[in-house]
Structures
1.
Amino acid sequence: MRTSRSGALWLAILTAGALLRWAGVPGKVILTHDETVSYISATGHQGEYARTVNAKTAPYGAWVTRGQWMRFVEIGEPFCWRTIRDDLVTWDLHPPLYFWLLHLFILLFGTHVWSGPLLNTALAVLTALLIRQAGLRMGYSPSLAQTAAALWLLSPALTGISLEARPYDLLALCTAAFVVLLLRFFHEPHNRTVRLGLSGITLLGSLSHHHFGLVAAGAIAFMLIRPGEAAARRHAFSLLALVAVGYLLATTAGLDIAQAWRASRREVPPLELTHLGTRLEAIFLALAGFFSQFKIAKYLLSVAFIVLWVRQRRCKKAAADTNGERRFLRFMAVWSLGWTFLLFWLGVSPAHAMGEKYLAIAWPFAALLLADFAHRAWERRSVKWALGIGGATMLLSSLLRLVPAAAGLPVCLNTASSVVVDTAARGELLRLVWHVPGTAMVYAAAQADLVADPAWPGRVDRNTLYISRLRAGNTRSHQKQILARWPQGCSPRHQPSAFDKIGAGVWCCTPDDFQPQESEK
């Protein structure tokens, strides 16, 4: 009876985690910049898109149907693995595995706002299964292992990660699989299946995200410094060889770490000392994001997390460490968090590269550690209160992700007969015209080209929509010049007084938004 109840509870946890992710899709008002790039990459068009925009050839700078732009997120050639890989090497800095998987999902289900979240939901559920298995390997009871997996599945940080078509759920899956195999390797270092599995997971992990290298390096470092265990240090060199084999195989599949490093250096501006405080704040907020998406709660929970972390060693029910599994868990949590934070704080990572998704390699360890800590310190009243408040905040934050954005998309997006977009930057244009009617005509070009081209206003009518993205060199000054060229027969030639915001820095304007200036009333 107890086994059946445990199985039913485990099934309910998995179902709840999947539904939390899937139910959050209707709340996606607009795609993010990065996930639009994911769809362009996964359909094999990243190189073609870049060449089209750079050369300023049609459909750039011409009145074309919306479909001529949207074809860049639709698969033209199925199973174009090499094209996807080569375009990523040339135009991006991410390895290809996630985009190959997304390609398969688009082949099966088509290109939709939910294509990436559907893939990520499947990856997250698999990760929960592996976290439970890792807990059992560490000597956790089945209920405690399920608690760790539940923390993973129900955290608002991780449900949020799954709603964006990016490779972080895949990175977490590879991390969890690597940990399960490594826990076996501690006791069966000569098991051929385990050794092959470690090389295979290293291959997949390295092709999922470059941060996987931190996980592999941490595992090797732990085995080298394990006190009093000379055999473990000898096996560390075996693990180093297995990891090296995985990375060697990854290079034959298209992994180019040197190119990715050069590309990331181009994205990272010089670090200024005045930014260190801001980056430190971002680190604390990202850490507390495991429990909450409310900023005030993040501040409080970040402090509570540190206090509880420091006090965990003083718990009366300290578990035995005879096999070093818990020491490994603590070491890897500190290692993965520490290196991610240090690279960000010192300016090696880009200024935007801190948030819940950038800690994907750390969250599996955090879930296992939090479950273990709660079990060992549960008799403390302060711990019960802290965990109760943290759990309630976590559940509330996850549930609030199910509520669609109040503003929604402007009605004018669905009624426009034509659209003028003042950017064709990768990751920007397609997400801005994603919800425009399929019959609409689109003119897309950089602001400077719109200002210089005398022909585009000839196709503007009363149902023409102007979408402006104040990014990538765009300015308010150019925006005003473009609006000043709006044909007078369609709308007054005045500056707009109101815009509908449809995303961070994204605005759309219709003729009805134009108001006469005081001097002309």
2.
Amino acid sequence: MKYAKMLGSAVLVLLLASCDQEIDNWLSRNHSDMQFSDIPEYIKLDEDHPDDVALNFSWCAAHDYGNDYITVYKYQFSVDGSAAEDIVEYEDDGKFSRSYTNAEMQQMLVEHFGQMTSSPCKVIITVTASFEGPQMKVPDVSTASFTVKTYGPKQFLADQLFVDGTAVADGRAELSKSDDDMVYTGTMHLKPGKINFPVIYADEQNAVGPLNADEAITTGDMPCVITDEAKANSWVITEEDNYRVNINLRAKTVRILAAGALVEADQMFLAGSATGGEQIEVQQTLENENLYAWRGELKAGQLYIPLTYNEAQEMSIVPQEADNHAIADGTSASFALAQTTKTNQRYWTIPADGTYRIVVNVAEKTIIIYSPATDLKNKTVSYNNTTIGKNPYTQEVVKLWMWGSFNSFAHDTGFAENCDDQEKNIADGYQEAYTLKQSLANPNVFVYKGAILPRETAAIGGDNPKGAVKFCVSNHNNNVYAYGSTADAKRNDHNGFVEVTNSTPQGLVEGQGDNRYAFFLLPENCNFVVVDIEKLTVTFATK
């Protein structure tokens, strides 16, 4: 932390000065007269009493070395994890105390240090006493830390999340986190009645509910708000059934689907005259088990999507409206399920021969049919291809390569991609086994799903990181267009590293600049990586 770095620098200066002056540091190393008093471990700021004192503390004077010494006190107020500058004051009037009201603390934490409202943070207070006199004295440093909880709008955050209400047949129950720490799911039996989702976050008792009281559930994602549990509204369940619940705190949505609305399928196919009379399988995507996608040639004609379940094709995906056969070109639309024997009456009409992309989300019961006019395109990047000496060099991104210390720079044999000179061999660190494949559902999404990624240690410049990785658009050298982490890095100066500890999406920085020296440190047992080069995020997880 910043104050610790400053202390280290001060000690170094004193050590360098020891060649000319004797340092008496016995007292500072073995005793400190400067102690804090009256600092609590936890403070909850009170919005209703902004002028009341929230924190009042003092410290005693440092050791008195006599009149030959001048003692200077430096006071620092900082917040753990904040990038904002510390609040620094020098105390020379002998008033060894500080006092802050609720409003003053709130303003410092939220406006200066950038902390979230209605959330706890760790505050660090440091007082450093420096001594100037005949001999050099090691500074006396005292530090205190405590937790402060701000007030204001509630955050969509949870330590635990539950389902409750008169509709919950078996009583209040806790929901489980999905691979995304901000998404909670559960399957339960519900009866007619009301339902909302209590949340425990820090010392708060909140609940997720609809904006308005007693809203009826829909089959899509429903917007939600978070309030005190006692003030929370509820959704209304009208039919008894088994339901699948999904609460996305990041998107601020809730989805409650009855089992009868769930799509059950072992396999999915395209059928109808648009496929030429043959069924074509639609594959489940690597990035999302609820997402199925296909891209290929269709003819003008009828299209429906039969589902194979328990070796039978009794049900098919068809348009939501029975008398509407038009595709919502490039737009997400709800679909319905119908008996496969009825698909001669309920189908989509493909308007013309061409290349189409079809994406089906069985959890949300939506389908997107992209025509050649609306189909998603590969991203094109431009950079200086030093391998073949071409600048600018443009390239469509159809695959991503991992590169870093994680595999100790092992590489495949063969020739480099995207190089006119085929005598160029694959560079160190690039292996086909650790590439990310382009999703059929979205060409801007790239996925690795397979064996657990290695986390080896190897030198990168002057560093020796364990499990470091970035993502490159080609394998011909390390001077290539890349997607690195948000860590501070500078070419020929220093590398940067972001340690990944959970499946929360991480930010990416793209280009051929200093971002090439900014890496992620892989979490343990990671075998699933999703990179979105449009949203510039990457998710590391275990599947």
3.
Amino acid sequence: MDHAVVVGGGIAGLLAARVLSDYFERVTIFERDELTDVPEARRGVPQGHHNHVLLAGGRAVLEKLLPGLGDELLAGGAVVTAPWPLKPPDPADTQAGTAAASPRVLLATRPMLEWQIRKRVAGIPNVTVLAGVVVNELLPGIRKSSISGVEIAQADDGSHTQAIVADLVVDASGRGSSAPQWLTRIGFQPPTETTFTNHSGYASRLYHTPADPDGDRLIIGSVSLPTLRSANVFPVEDGKSFVQLVGIRKDYPPRDDVGFREFVASIPSPEAAQVLDTATPADVIHISHSTENRIRRYHRGHGVEGFIVVGDSACALNPAHGQGMTVAAIAADLLGTELRRISRRRTDRRGFSRRYQRRLARATWLPWTLSTGTDYVVDRLGGGKPLQRPATRILLAYIERVAVLSLADLSTTKKMEETTQLVRSSAWMLAPTTLTKVLVLWRKLTADNVLRMMESQNSTVADASDRAGKGCLDSKVAGPHRDGGVTGDAAVDASVSEAVRDGDIAEIHHRTENAASE
């Protein structure tokens, strides 16, 4: 194989190019933005000014594709920590020690992450990164249903158009991908697509934060009920932290300083407000309402030979769930698997595009379902209407109940954590033990019941929480040197977890009140 072209120099495109370099003599990345030799946010990455999370599944793939990258990121200041626990550690639980084995996420600014990856990929001898170049069109091939290359031009003024011949074109241009229009203009059917949104939006600001006296860098999260507003603090490199505010159903956080602080003050937990009181802004407030989930079904039909689509171009998820970079890494890994199969069997690439897009569709089903399922449940709790399709509604109702079960059942908790980290498949959700638990407790295991429980918990322990200086819905997650985390008042959480484990939602309010009074 001779030449592969990658459209887009973001993380999805860089990782695809890394894999292609093993199988093509030349790999060229065309990136619209100008690139610098230092970490800087790019115009083509609207999410670049917001926090980024690399899940455990993505970390594993990145280390496989670029050995040693993890150490380089840590040396650059990236933070590795545990995600929010789905239930607090229970000292009486003999299995509680397994909580320390939870998968870890990596936190860093997007410019630093992308810059470190680009340095490694650009250093590969047969990879060329050309910045300030836009791809205008796909070029049809001689054979029917095939692509022979791309037409490029200067990004600043559209001048100096040039035809580039390629054996494979990979579209990694992100949410703004023009691939459907490219295909339509040369006579191909564009892919069908599905979208879902709960009209969430968020505002983020980077702060210089004081050093933690315990030496830990912690994720802090809190939720306001019943509005479902949330405030989160994510540590990143250089002693900085992102403060991120999220609202649903167009209850968008503002971008002015006064409104930002008022939004934080509307949330019961004092943790985020305390960060603002002790921190110094390192940037302006950035907002994003681009949280729509969208999947384009390139895997249906016979495929277009010589052309594949990866990353957000194929499946764009709500960025608030932090799955995008991990899905991009998985797509690159799958690309290597398929190219390796062709190389070993010494076959041509006929059918390659169709096979790859189908494999990618299967791999993205889980993150797509997790993202849209979470957004749907939150939307419904916020007053949204149920979905119309019965089959989809039943599937999401079942997954919702598995998630609620994980609040109290430790074995389910661990499996759910590994699934949301994309290191375990979702097959266990239909295993007989899980299926039996969920069906027996079907009416009780609902997010509505948990929301009512949390509202009761919020009101009954508010005074005690205020005296202790802790929000009753806080979630502090252990850093690299700590074994567990707590969610609000430990006595209340343990009592609530016991009630859920026993399947007796009706007892939750009673046990919450007893725990608060004790």
4.
Amino acid sequence: MAVFERYSCATAVGAGLLLSLSLPAVGQGVSTWCSKFDQTSEDQRLKTMVIQVKSSDGTVDADLAAKFKFANTLQAILTKANSKQKPEALVTTMVDSFRTVDGDERQPKSHLRMKVSARPGEAQLRPADLVADQGDDSIVPVGFFNRFDLSNFPAGHCGEARIVFAKKPQAGRRLLIIFEGKVTPKELKNENEQLTESDCRPVAEFWASLIDKSAQQRADALQKFYFDGDMGTFGRLPIPPMSFENLGGSNRGQVRANLFINGPANPWQLREWLLRKHGDRLAFDVVTVKDNPLTEFYDTTKASTLPEPNRGAAELADFQDRFKKEMLKSLVSNNAVGSGDAVRALSTEIQMAHGFGFGQGLTAEFDEFESTSQGDADIPKPDSGFQNGIDQAKKPLGSDLTIQQVINRATALTCHGCHQPEGVTRPAGFRLEIAPNVFWPKTLNFVHIDEDSKLSEALSRSFIPFRAALLKDHLCRDLEGAPAGQPVTAELFALRKAAPAPLALGTSSLQSLRQELATAASPSQRAAIQEIINDEQIVRRRAERSLPGSLWPYRRTH
């Protein structure tokens, strides 16, 4: 059965599971694109969620490759920011972030020193080669991802629009960079304002409209959308996804990378940056990797190995306490397969799509600056005392998950667990079990899309179908309040929760700070104000991450 056939209007039977689907009657408030998901081919539906630059037969989409050259993308960002920098200079700020020797950095929230390993291979990359059109180290686009499922209306965005770039692969010299731009249909004017689902409908319809476009038309539409915020007949975003504001500069979006330049002696790592302004120049500022608690926090005996053992021990104790009181609830919140409740009617792939709807639920003060996805250094290994504490804490929650399955769920939400759940140091045939006889889906040996635009099993069979179902549910619901019948995949969206309460994430204080920054008389004043702005952005990013998603109870960064 084809992946998207599970979401047709007909009843689908697969693996002995019955999934009855129904669409609402088309009426006021229901998008005209609703029926498109049932009247077109699987391949075209796929292109509303992910657009691959290279097809399975090796054919390259020349229009996409030309329009989204790495240098072109960086230049579009710089131009919108009124910066006179060149793309090479901007890339230099990323390469320079690898030039540290083995040392440590201060965690921005807890201020705990955390170890950061040197990346001499990446530090030796030449920025000019990375932005070149050709050459062994030139970077090219490999995939475009619609993450409408990450929408959060109180926080003021309609998910993300992502581009994955990759260096031409060579033995021991791989590099993939993902630009994760927030999609903001309008700026929130004050702390009491939030988006509605209707505000995000034009964005959903833009992605759905790709069904009807030729390859060239699709490339043109994506170029206008990513670089200019132009959605054609669906309107225009005030700030395009590929802008410094939506890649970190205004408490939105981020840039992440998979690093594997150093060769087999140095582990594959994932790191993260925010794109920020420093005067009239832009820079990739290093930040912590989200949803990646320091692995040592799981093991009480590891406190002495931290750069600041006493402070580290206090942070470790706080992490373990909050894991049991806060994180555990979200990790076991949906134990559908284990308990055999009504959600059992869903296919296993859908349940795995977002980990049964479970999330970590911890704020960012425990995150570290690197996630090592090769070897077992970043695999959580709770000591016996912490395991006993988890066991006692989960009993009142009525969960029949084992301790290892709980830890596996926590692992699956980290970069390591999402990108390398099997692990090169794991026993042959190992799978990450997240419920009895249910396993986290497979990757492509560290990545979910590779240099040839090939997609992982996790993406093609789990994540993307799930995201398509969410998009379809949104398009097929009456947003003006008239009865719209049962939602698409009724059993799946029985788990869907109401939009969260308003959150104070307005822009008024940031606007005032930016006005002060623009009129500051001296470089030292500007630097001080910019630091305050950066701190405020961290607070707001943490506040947003504490909210459930507007389309789905839990949001994951991956």
